[in-house]
């Protein structure tokens, strides 16, 4: 958790990872104190409300880039945390004999079932995040996605299917706590490795840009940040992307963003600059074997265009042919 201090500037995924690590520490303390029958175990259990729900948020932030999280995602995660807290609070009050377990059995049973259902769904979504968009990701991003998905699957599979389906009750009590600890540690280390790799990539940031004498060092830094938003966080996939969105993401003025883009990219305007990334992405999808069944409309939407007509116009202006013609020209070469 303290390792998150290393990252400057602090991003959403860094904060979420620190919360996740803190909640895992509560899980470990709960496991260690449960055998003694201490009330402390129930107190520590209250802090275990930020595990599966927060790792889902982390996965979205890691693999979807900018604007990956909105109020509805935080609300869902908070709802699961609330259910866990309600259930753990009831267990605590029962343990100190402030509540009768029989009188609230209907409540604890209902909350437990809802929590189990939502937690299972969230775990599935967390596993899906690195797989989503895997085929069109770069080589570095693919390795990160594969690493996260593999470790996550092995960890969850070990703590659920193996412990519940293959072990006896006696063996389960002995082995499950260790499997939980090892799996949680593996997921934390994997997450930190990916965070570190992405942090390094943001620092090194893409290819060097041309440096007109009229631009200052601040402008060149801004240019690298804009390139990162496009190349790594794929902001161009948002069909409503405008200059103000880029400016807000970097906390600078629209005028400065527009001036830097026009100076360094030779684009007539910001929209043309954004469309260059969209068309480059479209060219990858048009020739990808796994996307051959996709229509041109689907590809246009996947690349960030709002509809087919603007996509066709921008593509033809850039490549001198329509997307369909480009696909017909390139597919035979890709299959050789």
UniProtKB/TrEMBL annotation:
* InterPro entries in the record: Homeodomain-like_sf (IPR009057), HTH_AraC (IPR018060), HTH_AraC-typ_CS (IPR018062)
Q: Which GO terms describe its molecular function?
A: DNA-binding transcription factor activity; sequence-specific DNA binding
Q: Which residues cross the membrane?
A: 12-33, 39-62, 146-166, 178-197
Q: Does the keyword Transcription apply?
A: yes
Which top-rank group of organisms is this from? Answer: Bacteria
Question: Per the database record, which ranges form the HTH araC/xylS-type domain?
Answer: 227-329
Q: Which keywords annotate this record?
A: DNA-binding, Membrane, Transcription, Transcription regulation, Transmembrane, Transmembrane helix
Q: What is this protein called?
A: HTH araC/xylS-type domain-containing protein
């Amino acid at each position: 958790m303290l390792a998150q201090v290393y990252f400057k500037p602090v991003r959403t995924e860094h904060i979420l990872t620190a919360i996740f690590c803190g909640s895992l520490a509560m899980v470990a303390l709960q496991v260690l104190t449960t055998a003694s029958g201490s009330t402390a175990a129930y107190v520590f259990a209250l802090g275990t409300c930020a595990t599966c729900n927060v790792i889902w948020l982390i996965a979205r932030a890691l693999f979807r880039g900018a604007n990956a999280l909105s109020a509805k995602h935080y609300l869902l995660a908070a709802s699961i945390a609330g259910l866990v807290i309600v259930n753990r609070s009831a267990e605590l009050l029962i343990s100190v004999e402030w509540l009768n377990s029989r009188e609230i059995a209907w409540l604890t049973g209902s909350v437990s079932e809802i929590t189990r259902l939502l937690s299972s769904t969230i775990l599935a979504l967390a596993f899906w995040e690195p797989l989503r968009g895997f085929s069109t990701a770069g080589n570095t991003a693919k390795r990160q996605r594969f690493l996260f998905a593999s470790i996550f699957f092995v960890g969850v599979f070990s703590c659920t299917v193996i412990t519940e389906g293959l072990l006896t009750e006696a063996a389960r009590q002995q082995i499950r706590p260790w499997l939980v600890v090892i799996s949680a540690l593996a997921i934390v280390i994997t997450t930190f490795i990916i965070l570190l790799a992405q942090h390094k990539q943001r620092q090194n940031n893409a290819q060097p840009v041309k440096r007109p004498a009229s631009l200052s060092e601040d402008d060149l830094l801004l240019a690298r940040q804009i390139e990162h938003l496009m190349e790594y966080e794929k902001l161009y996939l948002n069909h409503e992307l405008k200059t103000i969105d880029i400016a807000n993401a970097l906390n600078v003025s629209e005028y400065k963003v527009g001036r830097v883009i026009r100076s360094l990219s030779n684009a007539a305007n910001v929209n043309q600059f954004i469309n260059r990334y969209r068309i480059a992405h479209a060219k990858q999808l048009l020739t990808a074997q796994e996307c051959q069944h996709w229509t041109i409309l689907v590809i246009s939407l996947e690349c960030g265009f709002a509809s087919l007509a603007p996509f066709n116009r921008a593509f033809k202006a850039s490549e001198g042919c329509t997307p369909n013609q480009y696909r017909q020209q390139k597919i035979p070469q890709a299959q050789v």
